[in-house]
C-alpha cells in the first residue's frame, strides 16, 4: 500500500468532548463539509454521534449523509436556494441557510412540507448574509410564509483566529444588535470562536477544524488545547540511496547533498495531495524522529534526508502528519493551512478507519 490516511474515531470523539468542555451547554453542529474536511463525512458523522447536528456546504453533501443513515439535523451553509432544493431539503429535514434576497423570493413561492431555514447575517466579514440590521425585516417577511419556519440566525467570524481581533468584537456587537428582539437560536462560533471567544458561543457552535485535531489560532497549537489528530497520513519508503556530496536530488536540482548521505524515497507526492510547494526542510517523521523533506515534491514521491535515522529501511512507513507531527506544522512549512492539506488528499490515498 502506498499513501494511507488512518482516521482515528476516538480522536474525533475526544475533540468533540473538548468542544463540550469549552462551550458547556451549547448545541454543537459539527462542520463536516468537503467530505468531512477530507476525513470522510459519513465516518466523521458516525464518530461524532453525540453532535446535535451537522453543517455541510450543499444539499448534495447533506443528502449523502442522509443516505449514510445520519439522522441529526443538517444545515447547508452555502448553496443557492431553488424550488427543487426546498422540497428535497424539507423532505429530509435538511435546513438551508438563506443569505440572499433571491432566497426570499424562492421561499415565497414554496409550497410543500414545512421547510426550516437558518438565516445568515453579515456582521462584518462581507462574504455571505443579509446586513445584520435587516434581521427584523427578514423575520417579518418570513413570518408571512406558511410553509417556512425559522430555526435561527447565524453569522460567521472572519478574524477569530486572532484572540485580540478588534474586528471580531465589532462582529459580535453587530450580530447582537441585529438579532435583539428576533426569535430563534443564534449561532456564531467556528472553532476559533469556540477556543478563544466565549462571547461567541451563543446557542449553537459550529466547529470544524478543531474536531480534526488542528488549531486555527495564530497563537496556540492543537496540543495547547488538548486536541488530538484525527488523521495519520503515512507512506512507505520505496527506495533508499546514498547520494554523494554536491549531487542534486529531484526535479530542478533544487537541493544538493551537503555531504555523502542517505536519502529515502517515500511513496507519496502531489498526485496524492501532498503539497507540491512544501519546501526542503518540511518535517516528516521517520521512526518517530524528525527528518526533512529534501528536493522538490514529485507527483508520486518525495525524498527525505535520512541522516537522523540511518537505520530506516525500504518498506517501513513514515509519517507525513498525524501523532507527533501536527498537520499545522507541515502546513506552515508549505505556506498553507491544515484545512487545505486535509481537503486536497486525492482518491489515490487509501483510507483506514480505526
Ligand atoms: C459558516 C461556517 N461555519 C463554521 C465553519 C467551521 O470553521 P472552522 O473549521 O474554522 O471551525 C465554517 C468553515 O469554513 C463555515 O464556513
Keywords:
single chain; 354 residues; alpha/beta; TIM Barrel; Lyase, Ornithine Decarboxylase, Chain A, domain 1; 8-stranded mixed sheet; 11 helices; 25% strand; binds pyridoxal-5'-phosphate; Ala_racemase/Decarboxylase_C; Ala_racemase_N; Alanine racemase; alanine racemase activity
In words, what does this structure look like?
The chain is an alpha/beta fold and 354 residues long. It has 2 domains: 9-216, TIM Barrel (Alpha-Beta Barrel); 231-353, Lyase, Ornithine Decarboxylase, Chain A, domain 1, CATH 2.40.37. The protein has 11 helices and 19 strands. Strands 2, 3, 4, 5, 6, 7, 8, 9 and 10 form a 9-stranded parallel β-sheet that branches. Strands 1, 11, 14, 15, 16, 17, 18 and 19 form an 8-stranded mixed β-sheet that branches. The longest helix is centred in the first third of the chain and has 14 residues, at 9-22. It is elongated and about 75 Å long. The two termini are 17 Å apart. The mean pLDDT is 97. Bound molecules: pyridoxal-5'-phosphate (PLP). Pyridoxal-5'-phosphate (PLP) binds next to loops.
> Mean of residue pLDDT?
97
Unique bound compounds: pyridoxal-5'-phosphate
Please state the overall shape, judged from the principal axes of the Cα atoms: elongated
Number of strands: 19
Topology as H/E string? EHEHHEHEHEHEEHEHEHEEEEEEEEEHHE
Identify low-pLDDT runs. Answer: none
Strand content: 25-35%
Q: Report how far apart the termini are.
A: 17 Å
CATH-defined fold name of the largest domain: TIM Barrel
How many DSSP helices? 11
The level-1 CATH class of the largest domain: Alpha Beta
